[in-house]
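A reminder from the course coordinator: this example appears on the midterm review sheet, so study it carefully.

Given structure:
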C-alpha cells in the first residue's frame, strides 16, 4: 500500500510518499512560496533536487509533485493510480475528533466550522483535502489531527477559569497541539520503558514548542492552549504571559487586538528577547561569544521548560521518562543539559557524555543511577499519519 501524506500550509505544502507497512519513504519534499514564485525541494532515489517552478495555487503545487513522482529521473511510481490513499495533517479538530477519520462531507463541514479557532491553519488544510479529492477522485482521504491526542485531558486541565458560558458558547478551552508528535514519542518511550502504566513527559522543542504529560499512553495535560500561543517560549511566540500585557501593549503601541496577538505570535519569543534570530543556533553562538541578552534568552527558554516538567511531574505523581524531540530537542545537547540540571532532587540525572552523542536513533541519555529515564526520540509525525491512513482505509 502507498500513502501520499500532505501537510498544507498557507503558502507551503510538505509531502511524503510512504509505504506504511514497511515504513519505507519513497519520496519527500516541500513546495514553498506557493502563490508567490514557487520553489520545490524534492528527495527521491537518494537524490535531492531544488527547482524554481511556478505554483500559482496549491492545486498546481500538488500537480507538480505528482508529476515528479511519476516522470523523469525522480520517478518512483508509474502512475497516480498506485497511490492508495491520502493522509492529511489537519491542525484543529476541536472537540469533534479524538482520533483520525476518513474524510466525508460531514467532516469537511465540521472542519470549516472550526476555522475561527484555527484561522491560519484549517483553511489551508481543508484546501489540501479538496484539491486531493479533485485531482485523485475516488481515493480515500484521511484527516489526522494535531489536537486529537489531547482530547483525553480531564476538564480540570483543559478548562480556563473564565465564565463557563464561554466554554459552552464559544468553545473557549485548552485544545493543545503537536498531538501526533506527542503520541508518537510517548509511545516510543513506553516501548523503551517496557511498562504499560507509564508516566512520561514529552518536550517537543522546535520552532513551535510544547510539552505534554502522558499517563498510561494518554495525554492528561499539555502546554499549548486554545491556540498554539500558550506555554513554552518559542521561536517567535511568547508562550505564557499575563493577559494584562495585551491591553497594556495595545495602549502603549497603539495596536489593535489582532495586531497584538500577531506581535506575540510573530515578533516575540526567542526572536523578540534576543533581538538576534528565532533560530536557537544563532542565539547559542551569540551567547558563546559573550552576548548577555542571548544568554538570558537561553536561560528563559530552559527555565520555562523546567517549570512545566516539575508541574507535570506533580500532575503525573512521578515521572518514569522525560523525552526530548523536534529540532531543538533532538539536536541541542546544551538545552537538554540545562533543562535537566538541578532536577536531581526528582531523580533526573543526565549523563553529559551520552547527551553529547549525535545520531538519529532513539537513545537514552541518563546516568545508570538516574531513577528517571531521559530519552532523545526523533519524532515521526508522517509515520503516524501514514499508519492511521492505512488502518482506516485498508479494508475499503
Ligand atoms: P518546526 O517547528 O519549524 O518544525 P524544527 O523542529 O525543525 O521546527 O526545529 C527548528 C529549531 O531547531 C530551530 O530553532 C533551530 O535552531 C533548532 N535546531 C536545529 N538544530 C539545532 C542544533 N544543532 N542546536 C540548536 N538548535 C538547533
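Designed residues:
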Amino acid at each position: 500500500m502507498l500513502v501520499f501524506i500532505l501537510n498544507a500550509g498557507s503558502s507551503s505544502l510538505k509531502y511524503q510518499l510512504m509505504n506504511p507497512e514497511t515504513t519505507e519513504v519513497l519520496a519527500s519534499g516541500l513546495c514553498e512560496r506557493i502563490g508567490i514564485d514557487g520553489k520545490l525541494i524534492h528527495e527521491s532515489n537518494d537524490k535531492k533536487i531544488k527547482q524554481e517552478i511556478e505554483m500559482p495555487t496549491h492545486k498546481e503545487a500538488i500537480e507538480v509533485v505528482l508529476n515528479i513522482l511519476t516522470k523523469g529521473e525522480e520517478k518512483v511510481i508509474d502512475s497516480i493510480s498506485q497511490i492508495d490513499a491520502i493522509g492529511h495533517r489537519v491542525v484543529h479538530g476541536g472537540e469533534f475528533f479524538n482520533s483520525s477519520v476518513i474524510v466525508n462531507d460531514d467532516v469537511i463541514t465540521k472542519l470549516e466550522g472550526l476555522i475561527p479557532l484555527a484561522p491560519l491553519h484549517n483553511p489551508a488544510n481543508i484546501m489540501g483535502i479538496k484539491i486531493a479529492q479533485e485531482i485523485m477522485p475516488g481515493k480515500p482521504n484521511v484527516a489526522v489531527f494535531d489536537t486529537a491526542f489531547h482530547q483525553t485531558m480531564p476538564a480540570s486541565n483543559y478548562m480556563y477559569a473564565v465564565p463557563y458560558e464561554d466554554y459552552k458558547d464559544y468553545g473557549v478551552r485548552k485544545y493543545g497541539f503537536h498531538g501526533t508528535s506527542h503520541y508518537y514519542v510517548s509511545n516510543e518511550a513506553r516501548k523503551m520503558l517496557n511498562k504499560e502504566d507509564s508516566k512520561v513527559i514529552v518536550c517537543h522543542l522546535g520552532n513551535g514548542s510544547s510539552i505534554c504529560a502522558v499517563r498510561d499512553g494518554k495525554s492528561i495535560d499539555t502546554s499549548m492552549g486554545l491556540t498554539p500561543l500558550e506555554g513554552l517560549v518559542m521561536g517567535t511566540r511568547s508562550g505564557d504571559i499575563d493577559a494584562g500585557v495585551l491591553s497594556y501593549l495595545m495602549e502603549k503601541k497603539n495596536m489593535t487586538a489582532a495586531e497584538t496577538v500577531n506581535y506575540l505570535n510573530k515578533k516575540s519569543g526567542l526572536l523578540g528577547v534576543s533581538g538576534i534570530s528565532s533560530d536557537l543556533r544563532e542565539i547559542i553562538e551569540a551567547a558563546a561569544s559573550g552576548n548577555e541578552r542571548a544568554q538570558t534568552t537561553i536561560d528563559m527558554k530552559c527555565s520555562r521548560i523546567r517549570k512545566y516538567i516539575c508541574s507535570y511531574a506533580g500532575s503525573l505523581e512521578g515521572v518514569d521518562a522525560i523525552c526530548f524531540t523536534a529540532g531543538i530537542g533532538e539536536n541541542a545537547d546544551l538545552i537538554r543539559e540545562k533543562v535537566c540540571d538541578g532536577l536531581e532532587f526528582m531523580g533526573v540525572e543526565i549523563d553529559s557524555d551520552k547527551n553529547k552523542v549525535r545520531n538519529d536513533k532513539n537513545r537514552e541519555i541518563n546516568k545508570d543511577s538516574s531513577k528517571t529515564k531521559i530519552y532523545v526520540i526523533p519524532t515521526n509525525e508522517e509515520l503516524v499519519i501514514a499508519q492511521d491512513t492505512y488502518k482506516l482505509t485498508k479494508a475499503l
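Residues 195-376 form a domain with the Nucleotidyltransferase; domain 5 fold (CATH 3.30.420.40). The radius of gyration is 21 Å.
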